[in-house]
Amino acid sequence: MNMPTTGISKFLDKIIRSIFHKAARSITITDGVDLIQRLEAYTTNECLKSKTYLYTILAQEESLDILIEFLVQHGYQKIQNIPIDIIRKLALIVIKENVFVYENKFYRQVIGGAMGSAFTLTLTNIFMWNWQK
What we know:
The structure is a single chain. Helix content is 55%, strand content 9%. By secondary structure, it is mainly α. The protein has one domain (6-18, 32-132). The strands form 2 sheets. A two-stranded antiparallel sheet has the order 1-2. It has a two-stranded antiparallel ribbon with strand order 3-4. The longest helix is centred in the first third of the chain and has 18 residues, at 6-23. The radius of gyration is 16 Å and the shape is globular.
């Protein structure tokens, strides 16, 4: 993606994704047998829903609140010496300042996050983490 927020998005993804993966270990599929068992359980419980379009409909402020809740719950007040209130402000820029050009016209995405933005996937996973707990 070639958007003004791409650099911030990649940076946030780099510093937060590993925290999410560490925290989500218990809900991470480890091998083929684990996958089959979980799919059977998820199918039985009607939990298999696509999150593909969730990226674009995430409630922006709620997602950012959940991000901070996630970080605090996992013991982070800073990440790489960056206070989490600054992390939230950077994430706000990525989510709210999404602009793109289509047929020579500028557009700004006002709901959710951009598909293809590095940080949007991590933020969506954290949003789903909150929903699962």
